[in-house]
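pinned: reference chain
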Amino acid sequence: MKLKRIIAAGMVSLLMIGTLAGCGGKDSASGGQQAGAEESGVVTLKWVTIGNGMPDNYDSWVEKVNAYTGEKIGVNIEMEVIPWGSWDDRRNIIISTNEPYDIIFGIGKNYVPDIALGAYCDITDMIDGNMAELNEMMPAKYWDAVKVDGRIYGVPTYKDNAISNYAIWDKELVEEYNLDLPSLVTVESLTGTFERLKADKNDYPVYVKNDGVYYIFDVYDQIGGGTQILGVRYDDKDARVCFTLEEPDIYSALETFHEWYEKGIINPDAATLTEARVYNMWRVAQGWESAAVTAWGPQMGKDVLVQKVGDTILSSETVRGSLNMVSVNSKYPEKCLQFLNLVNTDTRLRDMFYYGEEGVDFEYTEDGKAHKLNQDWEMPGYTQGTFFTVTQVDTDEFNQWEEIKVLNDQAVDSAVFGFTFDTSQIADKLSNCNEIWLRYRSEVMTGVQDPAVCVPQIKEELMKAGWQDIIDEAQRQVDEFMANKK
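pinned: its C-alpha cells
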C-alpha cells in the first residue's frame, strides 16, 4: 500500500510539473499523422469521446468534416468514440498514463480529480481570444459553474444544463386506468397504482437495472464530492451538508422501494441487471416535455404521456454533466478552443456531428430542416456542443430547443451554486467511503435491502472509514463559501 502511494504521488508530481509549465507539452496528440498536416498549415487534433463506438462510415464522414474545418480554421480532427460499457476503464487509462490526446469528453465526477492530477489545460485566459461566439452565446454563470479555484479547465456544453425530471407513462395504461398523473409524482403516491398494474398485467411496473430508481438524489447538490450519499439539498438556505441516506425524503423513498421489491413491483433481477429493457410502464428520466414525442415514445415504440416531477434545478453539478477538456500536453490548445467554438456555433458543422454524414445519415429538406436517413448515428449529441445551433429535424412540429432554453431560464439555482468541494485533504477517505456505498448501492436502490437494517450498517462502516471528517471538512468549506457569497 505504501509503495502504491509513493508511485501515485510521483505520477501526480510529474503531471503537476506539466501543469505549471502551461499548456502545450512536448507530446503531440496524433503522432506521425500530424507532420503532413502541419506542413500544409493544418493541424490534427484528437478528440476522445463516448458513444456507441466508431461509426461504420467514419472515414467518409471525417473526410468531409476535415475538408470543412481545415478551410475554416486550419484544423483536422481524429475521433476516438469509446463504447459506453468501456468508457470508465478506457478514460481512466488515458488520463492516468498520460496517453496523447487533445480534447476529451468528461462529466463532473472526474473533472475535479483530473484537474488535481494536472491532466487538463487551464483555458481561462484563452476563452475570449478563441471562443468569442460561444462566449457570447453561453450564460456567464455556466462558466462560473466549471471554475475550480477561480480557473476554468473545461468547456461546458450549453444544452439542458438544469435537471428537469419527468415521469414517463405508457399512454394506454394512463387511459385504461384513468390515471391522474399530477397526483402521482412522489414515490410514496405510486404504490397503489403499481399494485393494480402488477396484479392485472402480470408484469413489473418498475423495471430497473442495477442503479435502481436513482433520480431521487437529484434534489441534492453533490458539491463536487462525486458520491450520491454526500450533498446539500438544493433548496436548503442553511446549506447543511448531509448523509443523504438518512434524510427523510431519501429514507422514505428507500422504504418504499423495499416495499415494492417485496410485492413484486420491481423486477427480481434488478440488482444484478446491467442493461435496462426497452419497455417500461413507468420510469423517470431527465429531459423536457416534448421529448415524449421526439425521443422517449419512439425509443419505446409506444405513445407516452409525461408528468414533470419537482423543480427544474441548476447546480454546478448539472452544468458539469457534459464537458470537453483540453489536454495539458496538447501542442495546440488555442486550436482546440477554436475547434470547439466552431462545433458549437457553426450550424453546418454542428449538424455533421449531431446527425452524421450528409447524404448518408441525413439530408436537408427544401424548407431547411434535417431529415434523418439513419436513426443510429453513433455519436450522442449531448457530448459535442450546444443544442441551440442544431437544425430542427423535419419530423418535429415544434422547436424543442426553445423549450429547453425556457427550462434553463426558469431553473431554481442550488443553494450552493458555484461551490466546488476541495477534497484534497480527505481524498483517500472519500474514495474509501464511496467504495463502501458502491458495495451496497445496487441492492439499496433496487429495494432488495431494508433501509432500517442497511442504512445504519452503511453508516457504521462509513464512520470507521472517516466519514465524519469528510462531512466536517465539506461543511467548513460550504460555510466559508456561503459567508463570502453574502
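why pinned: The domain at 160-314+419-486 is CATH 3.40.190.10 (D-Maltodextrin-Binding Protein; domain 2). Residues 2-20 form the longest helix (19 residues).
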